[in-house]
Structures are given as C-alpha cells and as structure tokens.
Amino acid sequence: MKNVLLIGAGNMGFAMLRSWIGIAGHRFAVVEVNDVLQKRAEDVGATSYADLSDLPPDYKADILVIATKPQTVADVIAVARDRLTLGGLIISIAAGVTIKGMRQNAREDAVIIRAMPNTPAAIGEGMIVCCDGGNAHTADRERAETLLSAVGRVVFVGDEGKMDTVTAVSGSGPAYVFYFLEAFSAAGVSAGLPPDIAMLLAKQTLYGAIKMALDPKADPSTLRAQVTSPNGTTAAGLSVLMDADDGLAPLLRRAVEAARLRSAELGKLA
User: Fold this and answer.
1) Coil, helix or strand at residue 215
2) DSSP H/E element including 15
3) Which of 75, 88, 110, 199 would you call most buried, defined as having the most Cβ atoms within 10 angstroms of its Cβ?
4) How much is the pTM?
C-alpha cells in the first residue's frame, strides 16, 4: 500500500484527489488549512489534517503531491521532507517553480517531478505535462503517471525550459478557449442572433469540431480545407482570421508569449 500525501485541496488538488480515490493500492491523506476544503476531502474518502504536525508521528509518504500556491512550495518541502520515505517521490503542480528551486529544500534522495495540469482535469479531460530532475527512474515516472493519468492525458518533456511554454499553452489554454466562446457568441449576437442561440451554436460548433480533430488520423489543416469552398462563406471568414498581421495566429503567438514570460517571472518569485 502506497501512502500519498496531498498538500493543498483547492480546486486542482481536489480534482485530482477525487479521481485518485478509486486507485487500488494507494491510501490518501490531505493537509489543508481550510475547514470546508478539509471536509470536502474527507467526504470523498481521504484522511485530512489541518497541518503537517497533526499527522501521526510515524507517518511516511511514498508520494508527496504539492498543490499549493507557487510562493509556498519551498516552505512546504522544507517542512514535509522528513515525512517522505527514502527515495520518495515529490510531485509539484505549482506554476513556475523549478526543480532546482525545489531541490534546495528537499532531501538529496528525493525524486522530484514537476507537473503542469490544466482545469479540464476536473472532469478527467486534463492535459498534464511533466518533467523530472534527472534522477527519476522509469518506475518513478510510472508512479507519477498512475496518479496523473486519472485526470487526463500525460506526457513527459525532457527539457524543463519548455515548462513555461507548457504553462502558457495547455495550462492557460482553457481560458483562451472560454474567451473564444464568449467572443464567438458575441459576434453571433452582433450579427443578429439571440444570445442563447448564439452561445449554443458557438459551444456545439466548437465541441463537434474538436471531436473531429481528436481523431488520431485527423489533420486540422485538412479538416479546415474540407470545410472551405473556394470563394465561399468560410473562405470569407478565414480571410479575416488568417490575416498575417492582425489575424488569429499572430494574436495567439502574442498571448502565449505573454503567459510564458509571466510563468518565468512567477518562478523567480517563488
């Protein structure tokens, strides 16, 4: 039986915990200062504590998962380090906090994996990107994947320098999609549709298109071409969206770069 200790049971922490409870061979404990969030964790089957000091004196975690704000990660590791088994695994989902930064407060034998999930993990459809500190073995990555794959798709990248970009794309990406829906619907209203119909059209159109694009054999460029008749309505709309200077592509590049830079700044503040 593996002991998993989750520090922080906010939205993302709880989303993961709720999906983990059914995983065989794992026992889950949560440290969360908020009474309401503590109770919520208990309701799904975890043992919860207000503070690390409240854990039984002999408690040891095989896996420590940190789901707190970036600024508190270093302190959490420093306090929890002796609660980890020899060669135990630390998984952090805090944006911008580097493995090097975490290593400074961890025991030398600890294995550290940095992960970036996104909010669709709450419905089991997240995208979780991970990297390790170089001392992780296949078994360590498999331990992490067992937990993280319960809330979505998992991929490992070899270069931690890519994690700020990962944060900017998949971490922040759901908000971009939600805003696209807002703007797409508003455009329909501006063109004469009732708001409820405009939002329904926007949501179902995006949902259906994404389902088509998720086919492993599907290529978005090919799908786009199949919808676009020469000199037709779609071509007219795409001429605006695909404008080299003011279209969607340069706008997304600027958005992703702004988010990437902010992720790097947060890492320096952590």
Assistant:
1) coil
2) helix 11-20
3) 88
4) 0.88
CATH superfamily assigned to domain 173-267:
ProC C-terminal domain-like (1.10.3730.10)
Q: Give the residues of the chain that fall short of pLDDT 70.
A: 270
**What is the rounded CA–CA span in Å between residue 254 and residue 64?**
36
Q: What is the CATH number of domain 2-163?
A: 3.40.50.720
> Contact at 8 Å (CB) between 111 and 139?
no
191: how many CB neighbours lie within 10 A of its CB? 8
Give me 172's structure tokens: 């922040």
Beta-bridged to residue 26, according to DSSP, are 2
Q: Which residue matches tokens 């790097």?
A: 264
- The amino acid present at 259, given as its one-letter code, is A
pLDDT, residue 86, reads 94
Task: Lay out the sheet containing 111-116: strands in order across.
Answer: 47-49, 26-31, 2-7, 61-66, 84-92, 111-116, 126-132, 152-156
